[in-house]
Design a protein that fits this description.
alpha+beta, Beta-Lactamase, Arc Repressor Mutant, subunit A, two-stranded antiparallel sheet, about 40% helix
Length: about 280
């Protein structure tokens, strides 16, 4: 067991105060900031004096509101500049694949299409092999649908219309979708930041895919979990979807975006859950 290391409590307390200010999303009064940090206004004020001297916090006059300072901005930009999305995503793929026994995939948008940049296969006899560099169907795959829903509409609308004009007939949970039905599906994906397919693209394959955002809230990648049909739980409130959602929110947070947990609608009935049991 690793030996606990001694730290400086005052530093941790001060940084906790800065973190509360950052998570507030706007300038704060002393009273509100102290309340969020769980300390008295007088104690918070003493720390804020030092944080102002360090440039981590500034005070907006004449209202006296507290906001992040220039040094906080400098540190944030430096951290973002040193953040390697693909390295962080690979670590999540390894963790998810190992813990859930599913193929974990990272996809990005390149040359007007979703592309697989990395895939991690689980240890086991039955796996779904996903080819690195492979193109994902925009309308038919879970990852393609996340891009279709969450990339700029001005960019995606003509691409979606092109697919339908070519005779594409996307399916979702056993039903063929027309354009109106597909738009309704995209609205649901925008709300959840996640999509699922149950044999929609390949009858032998099910998938869940989640969105990863950068510091300005733009979609930069998707993380998908893929398995043989009926082999894992596709429910929105199931353990696989929850693990994927937590991983995507964690990656987004590392990239500077605090992704809110989306409100979950009543679970849409799926024909199969783990082990082929209907739900």
């Amino acid at each position: 067991m690793a030996k606990a290391q001694h730290g400086v409590n005052s530093v941790e307390t001060g940084l906790h105060l800065v973190t509360c200010l950052a998570l507030a999303g706007r300038a704060q009064t002393l009273k509100d900031l102290a309340g969020a940090a769980g300390m008295s206004p007088s104690k918070a004020h003493r720390y804020l004096v030092s944080l102002k001297r360090a440039g981590l916090v500034e005070q907006i006059e004449p209202l006296g509101l507290y906001e992040l300072g220039a040094m906080a901005v400098t540190l944030g930009l430096a951290a973002l500049g040193r953040t390697d999305l693909h390295r962080l995503a690979w670590q999540e793929l390894v963790r998810l694949s190992g813990s859930l026994g599913l193929t974990a995939v990272q996809g990005i948008w390149a040359d007007d299409r979703p592309v697989v940049v990395r895939a991690e296969l689980p240890q086991g006899l039955v796996t779904v092999n996903v080819r690195t560099g492979g193109v994902l169907g925009l309308l038919s795959t879970a990852s393609g649908r996340v891009f279709a829903a969450l990339r700029p509409e001005t960019e995606m609308k003509p691409l979606i219309e092109r697919e339908f004009s070519r005779g594409a007939k996307p399916r979702h949970m056993g039903k063929t979708l027309d354009r109106a039905g597909f738009d309704t599906l995209l609205d649901d994906i925008r709300r959840r930041h996640m999509a699922r397919t149950e044999g929609d693209d390949n009858l032998a394959v099910d998938a869940l895919s989640g969105a990863v955002f950068n510091h300005v809230g733009a979609l930069v990648a998707v993380i998908a979990l893929v398995g043989t049909s009926g082999s894992f739980d596709l429910r929105w409130d199931g353990p696989v979807a929850r693990a994927l959602g937590e991983a995507c929110r964690g990656l987004s947070r590392r990239l500077g975006y605090e992704q809110p947990k989306t409100d979950e609608a009543p679970p849409v009935s799926v024909r199969r859950s783990a082990g082929g049991v209907r739900s």
